[in-house]
Amino acid sequence: MSIIKDFLFQLTLVVIPIFIYYTFITEKVKSQKNKNIIMTILWGISIIFCMSFPVNFGDNSRLELRIIPLLLGTLYGGFWPGIFLSVIIILFRLSFGISIGFYNTVLVLLTSLPFILFFQKSFSLSKKDKRVKIAVSLSLFYCLSGLTIFCILRGFSFDFFKIQMVHLFLAVVVTWLFTILIEKIR
């Protein structure tokens, strides 16, 4: 139950930037470029918060919902915000030291980010329903990449697999909900 509680706390950390942006920023800032910069910074803060309060399990294993701010920041912000958010993830993860977790993070980003960046253009040109499908598919791909690389680097464990499945489920469902929410607000 504490794993679910930790994930729900991270969910709150992801909601805060969206709330701040749409409540305080959109009305006051007129330039789309400035809005994009502010949103990227808010997504970066969300990533740092998610990574600061991970779900810890097993032998120094940790999970967090950083995929959601990374994915939404890249899909709605574009190429450079996606690169910037990825660099934040790598540098912040590096601050915990070079370990198998750091390698896992880098490999998952190297595997997933090209796909996210590739689909960003079609995402921005798509209608709302297709945007939701693209975001959910990319979230699923990111989580499955993370699960696969985790199993390759650490070996398969049924206990870790269960936690990874909870992570996958939450990441996909929350991506779906947030994408629908953002699309309704926009």
From TrEMBL:
- Asked if the keyword Translocase belongs to this entry, the reply reads no
Q: Which UniProt keyword terms apply here?
A: Cell membrane, Membrane, Receptor, Transmembrane, Transmembrane helix
Query: Which residue windows are transmembrane per the record?
Result: 7-25, 37-58, 70-94, 100-120, 132-157, 163-182
Coiled-coil stretches noted in the UniProt entry, renumbered to this chain: none
Kindly give the membrane topology term recorded for this protein.
Answer: Multi-pass membrane protein
Instruction: List the subcellular locations.
Output: Cell membrane
InterPro entries recorded for this chain?
Answer: Sig_transdc_His_kinase_LytS_TM
Pfam families listed in its UniProt record = 5TM-5TMR_LYT (PF07694)
**Is Membrane given among the entry's keywords?**
yes
Where do the Signal transduction histidine kinase 5TM receptor LytS transmembrane region domain residues begin and end? 21-182
| Protein name as annotated | LytS/YhcK type 5TM receptor domain-containing protein
Q: From which organism does this entry originate?
A: Robertmurraya beringensis
Show the taxonomic lineage.
Bacteria, Bacillati, Bacillota, Bacilli, Bacillales
